[in-house]
DNA sequence: TATGAATGAGAGTTCATTCAT
DNA sequence: AATGAATGAACTCTCATTCAT
C-alpha cells in the first residue's frame, strides 16, 4: 500500500469536510485533526484555508474540461452517440470523485469573486463546446432545431443534478449518485431524453427496460 | 409608507446575507448591522442565529407546499394542463422571493440534521403529490408509461434549477431567474418538455416561437 | 477611591507594557491579563491592539501641543523667561505621565506610516511654535543670532532626552526622570544653557549651586 | 566583485529589518527572505534570532568603545581639541553604519536584561572615559567647573541624537544623519557648544559661518 | 423591547525553532 | 552548510450569546 503524503492527507480531509459542512462551516483545525497533521501545515503548504479550497476547485475544473475536450475529439458514428459518450464520461468523472464534485457544484451556487472567475474561464469553455456540438447537429439535420441555449442549460442541469442534490436522491429515492449502478440507470434516462427531445424520434412502443421495470 | 418592524428588518437583512454568503459565512453582527438594530435582538427575537435561519427555511417550505397542494385541487381540462399550472405557480412563488428560494435550495445540498428533517417532512410530501399526479396520468393514458421516480426527479430538477444556478444563468446567458419575463420563456421550454416527454406527442413541424426565434 | 472603568484599566495596563516591552513585544493577552479584563474587549473598545496604541500616542501629542500653545500665550517679562517657562511646563507634563512619554518618544524613532503622520501634524506644529519664539528673540536682540534649526533641534533633544534615555540616567547616574526633584535639577542645567548659549551672557564667576555642589 | 557569505547576507538583512521594524517587529522569516537564505540557517549560525541580534549590538559597542579609547590616547594640543576629535570620530563611526547605530540606540531605550548588561559594561566605560577627560580639563583650568555628570549626559545626548531621531531630522529639517555633509555642519554646532559652554569663551561677535548663514 | 458591555470559545495565521536529509 | 517539512505555542481578532440596565 502506497503511503499518503502529508499534502494528500490534508486534501482528503478537506474534501470530506468541505463537502459535508461547506467552506465557511469547516475550520482548519477540523481539517488538520482529521488528516492527523499539524494545523500550521495548511498555511505552509497551501497558503491558508482559502488556498487549499481553491486548489481543489480549480483542479476539478481543469480535469473536467480536459475530459470534455478529449471526449469531443474522439470519433463516433453519429453526433448523438458522441454526445451520449461525452455525457457518460462527465458523469463517470464526477462519480469517481463525487465529494469534490458536490463541493464544487455547491460553491458555484454562491455569488463570489472566485465563482465569477471560474464561470468566465471554465464554464464559458464548457458552454462553447456544447454549443459547437449542438449546432453541428442541428445544421446536419441530426438534431431538431430549437433554442440552443435552453438545450445546453437543460443538458448541464441534468449532468450536474446528481452532485447538486445527492441527499435528495438518497433520502427520498435511495439513489447513490456515486455508484456505477446509478450512472447506468441514469444514462438510460438521459439516452431517452437525447433521442426524443433532441432527435425528435417517435417512440413506437411503450417504455421497456429490464433494469427499471420495477420502478414503473 | 409602511414602517418596517424590527423583526422584519432583521429577517430582510438575514435573507440577503444568507443568500450571498451562506449560513456559516454570515455573522449575527453582519445581520444586525445591515438591519440597523442591536445584535442582542437576534437572540431575543429568534433565539439565536440558528432559530432565525430555520424560521426562514420552514416558512419557505410551508408556503411552497401550500401552493403545491392548493394548485393541485383546482380543476383543469387535463392533467397535462394541471401539471403545467402547478409548475408555473411554483416558479412564480420562488421568483417572488427568489433570495429565500436560492438560500433554501443551496442549504438542501448540505448534509445536516436540519436538512434531513426538512427532507422527510416537506420534500416527502412534495414527492407524494407529484407521484399521485403522474401516476393518475399514466393510468388514464394521458402520460406515457415510464419510471415515475425519474420523471419526478427530472421535473423537480427543472423547477429548482433557476434558483440553484442563478449566477450561471446570469453570467453566461444573461438570464435573470427572478424576472417575470424569464418565467414565460422558461415555461415555453417546460411546456414542450411536458408535451413531448411526458405525453409523447410527435412534433409534426420544426420548432416555432416568436419569442425565441432569434436564439435558434 | 474612584473606581476605574474597564477602558481605563486597559489603557493603564497597555501603557505599562508598551513602555517596557514596546508595541510589537506586547501581546493583547498580556494587556488583558494585567488589566484583569476579557481579551476581546480590546478589539471591542479600541478596534484592536493598533487602535489602542494609536489612541495613546495621539492623546499624548494632543495634550503636549495644547500645553505648548497655551504656555506660549502667557505673559512674561522676557522671551527668555517665557522659553524657560515653556520648557518647564513640557518637562512637567511628560513627567506626570512619563510612561506614555517614553513610549511615544521611542515610537518616534521608528519609521512607519503612523510616525510620518504624527511628524507632519504634531511635530511640525511644535517646530513652528519654537521657531516663532526663537526668531522673535533674535529680532529683538534678546537671543544671539545663530542657525535657528539647530537651536530648535538642540532644544527639543534636551526636552525629550529624559524620556528617551531614562534607563541610562537611572543605571549610570541614579537619576529618575519622573521625579519632581529631577526636573528642578535639570531645569538648572537648562537655564544655564539658555542664558549662556541663547542669550550669550558671560558667566562672571565659577559655577555655584547649593544643590549640585557635590557633583563637581 | 566580492561575493557575500551567507552569514553576511543574513546580518545585512537583519540590520535593515531591525532598524526599520525593531527587534520584536521583525520575524526570522522576514530576515531569511530578505537575505535569500533558508530560515533554519539563522538558528544554525547564530543560535537563534536573539543571538543574531545580540551579536550585532555587541559588535557595535565593541567597536564604539575601541574608537573612543584609541582616540583618547592620541596626542593633541589641548583637551578641547582632543574632545572635539573624539566627538567627530564617534559621529563618523556611527555614520558609517548608521543602520546599526539607530537600532542600538533605540534598543537602549527599552528596559530589558540585555540593556542592563550593556549599560553596565559598555556605557559605564564610556562614562568613565568622558569623566576622566572632563575632570582633567577642569583641574587644568581649561574647562569651566560645573557638574560633571550633566556635562557628560549633555554630551552623550548630542552625540547619539542624530541616530536616535533620524526621521525627525529628515522629515522636518531635510537633514540626513548618515551623510558626511551633515557631520561637518553638526560639528560646527558642537564646536561652538564646547567653546562657549565647556570653555566659557565669550563670543565677541555675532555668529558667522559661510555654510550656515542662510539658516539664520 | 432595546441597549452596550462583557464573556469564553474558537477562528485563521504566524511564530521561532527543530528535525531528517 | 544547507534545505524543506514539521512542530507546538502563541498571535490577533471574531464568534454567538448573555448580562444588567
TrEMBL record, chains A, B, C, D:
It holds the Pfam family TetR_N. GO terms for molecular function: DNA-binding transcription factor activity; transcription cis-regulatory region binding. PANTHER family: HTH-TYPE TRANSCRIPTIONAL REGULATOR RUTR (PTHR30055), HTH-TYPE TRANSCRIPTIONAL REGULATOR YTTP-RELATED (PTHR30055:SF199). The gene is refZ. Residues 4-64 form the HTH tetR-type domain. This is Forespore capture DNA-binding protein RefZ. InterPro entries: DNA-bd_HTH_TetR-type_CS (IPR023772), Homeodomain-like_sf (IPR009057), HTH-type_TetR-like_transc_reg (IPR050109), HTH_TetR (IPR001647), Tet_transcr_reg_TetR-rel_C_sf (IPR036271). The keyword Cell inner membrane does not apply. Keywords: DNA-binding. It comes from the Bacteria. Residues 27-46 bind DNA.
Amino acid at each position: 500500500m502506497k503511503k499518503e503524503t502529508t499534502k494528500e492527507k490534508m486534501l482528503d480531509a478537506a474534501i470530506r469536510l468541505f463537502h459535508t459542512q461547506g467552506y465557511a462551516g469547516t475550520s482548519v483545525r477540523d481539517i488538520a485533526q482529521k488528516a492527523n497533521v499539524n494545523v500550521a501545515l495548511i498555511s505552509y503548504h497551501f497558503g491558508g484555508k482559502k488556498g487549499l479550497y481553491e486548489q481543489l476547485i480549480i483542479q476539478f475544473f481543469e480535469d473536467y474540461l480536459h475530459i470534455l475536450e478529449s471526449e469531443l475529439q474522439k470519433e463516433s458514428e453519429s453526433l448523438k452517440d458522441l454526445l451520449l459518450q461525452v455525457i457518460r464520461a462527465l458523469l463517470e468523472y464526477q462519480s469517481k470523485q463525487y465529494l469534490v464534485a458536490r463541493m464544487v457544484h455547491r460553491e458555484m451556487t454562491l455569488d463570489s469573486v472566485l465563482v465569477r472567475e471560474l464561470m468566465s474561464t471554465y464554464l464559458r469553455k464548457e458552454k462553447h463546446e456544447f454549443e459547437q456540438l449542438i449546432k453541428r447537429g442541428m445544421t446536419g439535420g441530426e438534431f431538431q432545431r430549437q433554442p440552443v441555449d435552453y438545450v445546453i442549460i437543460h443538458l448541464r442541469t441534468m449532468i450536474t443534478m446528481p452532485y447538486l442534490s445527492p441527499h435528495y436522491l438518497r433520502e427520498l429515492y435511495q439513489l447513490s449518485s456515486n455508484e456505477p449502478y446509478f450512472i447506468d440507470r441514469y444514462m438510460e434516462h438521459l439516452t431517452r431524453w437525447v433521442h426524443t427531445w433532441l432527435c425528435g424520434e417517435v417512440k413506437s412502443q411503450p417504455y421497456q427496460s429490464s433494469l427499471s421495470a420495477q420502478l414503473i
